[in-house]
Amino acid sequence: MKKYLLVFGIMIVAFTMTAAAQETPTVVTLTTPDGITLIGDFYAAESPAPTLLLLHMAHSSRAAWSPSIPTLLEGGYNILAVDMRGWGESGGDQDMDATAADFPLWFEWLRGQPTVLADQFAVIGGSVGANLSLFACVNEPGCVTVVALSPGRDYYGVQPLNALADNAMRGRSLLILTALRDSSSGTFPQELVAESNVFEVGLIQYSGIGHHGTDILNNREDALPLIMTWLETHLG
User: Fold this and answer.
1) Structural domains of the chain, ranges and CATH numbers in brackets
2) Which of 70, 74, 83, 117 has the fewest CB atoms within 10 Å around its CB?
3) In 3D, which of 97, 101, 102, 67 has the Cα closest to residue 83?
4) Whether pTM exceeds 0.85
């Protein structure tokens, strides 16, 4: 049975935080089968723990997550923030099909790290990264939850409803954060909630403007605590 959590406006929540050992990331370099170099920042937890994969917006890079990293680390998670191909320091063209094919490489690398629990992954993405986060999760058996910041019907050809085909997200959970007056995202988040086949879906809608993708985390003080509470509940 699907559970729904619909939240509007501001919510103040509390979450438990634990210390992480690594505050300076290890820069990770991967080479794809087609010869493209991908770059990411990995923050290792103090002991075996769940892992967050962070996907940035278009015209952005992994640096967009920097203001949120300290709080995410306090949750005790491993964190991998990547530059998707064609953005930041990663090579290649901005090819979304090829980008989606890169995610299994990142998960394979993560499963080789001693502090990574292979069955406890979450993917967090903003804008086109939000759309891609669903595809990244459905193709990774160890992914249990997605946090999508301003998903849209079609960003750069990435259509998240396609990720829900054949009950691909069954048994997993999805949290959506968006703004009611976001012209890019529009009313699509409500449609995504209605069409989702996940175990539990949460929708946070803000009434302000200027809140899109990772900008939500910079403009809304309650956004990151809400995400932390969701992760603690659904990821551990």
Assistant:
1) 3-234 (3.40.50.1820)
2) 70
3) 102
4) yes
